[in-house]
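yo

u said u wanted the structure for the complex thing, so here. seqs first:
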Amino acid sequence: MIEVKGLQKGFGGTQILKGIDAKFERGKTSLIIGQSGSGKTVFLKSLLGLHVPDDGSIIFDGKINKDLNVEEKRQLRQDIGMVFQGSALFDSLTVEENVMFPMKMFTNSVKSDMLDRVNTVLKRVNLVDANKKFPAELSGGMQKRVAIARAIVMNPKYLFCDEPNSGLDPKTAIVIDNLIQEITAEFQITTVINTHDMNSVMEIGEKIIFLKNGLKAWEGTSKDIFKTDNESVVDFVYSSNLFKKVRQAYLDEIK
Amino acid sequence: MNYIEHVGKYFLMLKQVFKKPQKRNVFWEAIFREIEDLGLKSLGIVAFIAFFVGGVVAIQTALNVDSPLIPKYLIGFATKRSMILEFAPTFASIILAGKVGSFITSSIGTMRVTEQIDALEVMGINSLNYLVLPKVIAAVFFYPLIVIIAMFLGIFGGWVAGVLTGLFHSHDYIEGIQLEFDPYLIQYALVKSVVFAFLIATIPSYHGYYVKGGALEVGRASTQAVVWTSVVIILMNYFLTQMLLG
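structre next:
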C-alpha cells in the first residue's frame, strides 16, 4: 500500500500540489484524473521520487520515503515499475534487451535464466516473435506492451503508469487497460495510473482520485463517478455528449 | 541562466559522473560500445583530413621556400612540427568536437526528451554515471591513438604530395622529418589530446543531459555543444601550450 500525507510541491514560487492525502491499495488499480495543469504529472513524479516534495510524506508499506537512506531508496526503486507515456524504451536496445535491462543491472542471474524470465513476461503481455526487434519497428500498442513487460520483469510491488493509453486506438487502449488490471490483481501490485482516458475511468477505475488546482477534489470508484454530484467531476468526466448520455441512461436505470 | 551557473552545474554533473559504476560487466560493455561509436567511427574522417592537410602544409611550405639559402629538408621538418604540435592534437579535436560532440548531445538529449533518462532514474540507476562515464573513458583512452594516427598520416600525406608534384625530393623530406626529433613534443601533444578528449565527452553530455523541450531544442543544444566545446578546446590549447612549452 502507498499512503500519501499532505503532499506539497511547488516550482519557482508556484504551488502545484497543495497538500494531497491519498491511499493506494495493494492489488487494486487506482486512477488519477484531472484537467491538464491540475498537478497529476507532478503528483506521479513525486511518488516516483523524480521530484522531492516540499512538504508531506509518501509511505510505501510503512516505509516513509524521506526517512530512507540511499541504499534503502535504491532498494525501494527496484520494487517500482513504471510505464511512461511514450513508453521510454531504449532505442538502441532490442525488445529482449530492453526487458532484460533491469535484471542485468540489479541481479547476478545467468543469461539463460534472464532470457527465460524475459520470455515469460513477454508471453504474459501477449507479445511473441518480437524479441529481436528494435522499438522503432513496433507499433504504439506493442511498445506499450514491451514497456509493461519491462516494468514487471523484476516483480515490482508498485506499478506506476503515465497515460498508458495515449496515442492508442480505442481497441488497443482497452487491451492495455485490461492487461494492467489483470497483472495488478494477479501479482498483487499497488498500481497507480495517471490518465485522461474516460474509457479507462469507467472500465478499470477501482479507485479514482480527481485532482483540481493541486488539491484532491473528489475520490471514489467507477460506479460512484456515475452518481456523484460534484460539479467539477461531472464537468470534467462528462464533457462529451456521449458520456453525458451514458450517465443519464445509468441514472435513469437505477431510478 | 548565466555562465557561472552553467559552469557550476557542469562540475556538479561531473561529481555524479565519477561515481562507482553499479554493475561492472554492464559498464565494460558500455565502454566497448562507446569506443566503437566515438572512436572507431571517427577514424575515417580524421585520417582523410589529416592526410590532405599534411599534403597542403608540405606544398605551401615548398612554394614559400624559394630562397636557395634555405635547405629543402625544412619542408619535411615544418610539416612534421605542424602536424605534431597543432594539427593532430588540436584540429583533429575540433573535428571530433563537431562530429562526436553533436552525436553525444543529440543521443543523450533525445533520451532526455523521450523520458528514457527518467526511466533509468526510476529504476534506481545513476543515469549520469551510466551514460557519461563510459564515454569519458572511451574518449580519454582512444583519442590519443587517433591523434597518433593523424600525426603519421599527415606527415605521410606531405611526403606523397611532394613526391607527386615534384616540388621536393623524397630524401630531403625524410631528412627533414628525422631532424631534431624531440619526444617531449609528442608528450605535449598527447597531454593535449587527453584533455581535449575529456572536454569532447563531457561538454556535449552536459548540453544533452539538461536539455528541455523537444526535437528543436535537442538540435539547438547540439549546435551549442559543438560551439562551446570548440571554444573551450581553443582556450585550453592556449593555456596548455603556455604551461607545457612556455
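The interface with chain A takes residues 22-23, 26, 110-111, 114-116, 118-119, 121-125 of chain B (CB under 8 Å). The longest helix of chain B spans residues 24-64.
cya
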